[in-house]
Amino acid sequence: MMVNTCRVPGCHAPRNPSQLMCLTHWRQVPAELRHEVWRTYRAYKRNVTNATWLAASLARDEAIEAVCPTLDDTYTQGEFSFGDTHE
Q1: Phi and psi dihedrals of 14, rounded to 5?
Q2: For 53-66, how does the pLDDT look when each residue is reduced to its tens digit (9 = 90+)?
Q3: Three-class SS string for the chain?
Q4: Could you read off the pLDDT tens digit of each residue along the chain, which spans 87 residues?
Q5: How would you label 7-39 residue by residue, b for 16+ Cβ within 10 Å and e otherwise?
Q6: 63, 37 in Cβ contact below 8 A?
Q7: Residue 5: beta bridge partners?
């Protein structure tokens, strides 16, 4: 069985597939940004388009960078971190 882990580099804490990161790191993301992540993710789930995927991906990347500011640009590219893939 595959275990989903936190998307923050170096953190191996488990996470639910619908969650971006472990609860410890999620609580470190500023509240306004957490709301933006959920708002864009819900919009993406309601209407899968390039625009909604891009908005959710950018919010996701900002949240990861908020708790890991030394992250390089190549880490967050690619797979959609909420357990979804863009088609």
Answers
A1: -70, 155
A2: 999 999 999 999 99
A3: CCCCECCCCCCCCECCCCCCCCHHHHCCCCHHHHHHHHHHHHHHHHCCCHHHHHHHHHHHHHHHHHHCCCCCCCCCCCCCCCCCCCC
A4: 678 899 888 889 999 888 899 999 999 999 999 999 999 999 999 999 999 999 999 999 999 999 987 655 545 444 444 544 443
A5: bbeeeeeebeeebbbbeebbeebeeeebebbee
A6: yes
A7: 14
Collect all residues with Cβ–Cβ distance below 8 Å to 87 and sequence separation of at least 6: 48
pTM of the model: 0.75
Tokens of residue 86, six digits = 């863009």
Could you identify the residue written with the tokens 């410890």?
24
Tokens found for residue 34: 């957490």
CB 25 within 8 A of CB 8: yes
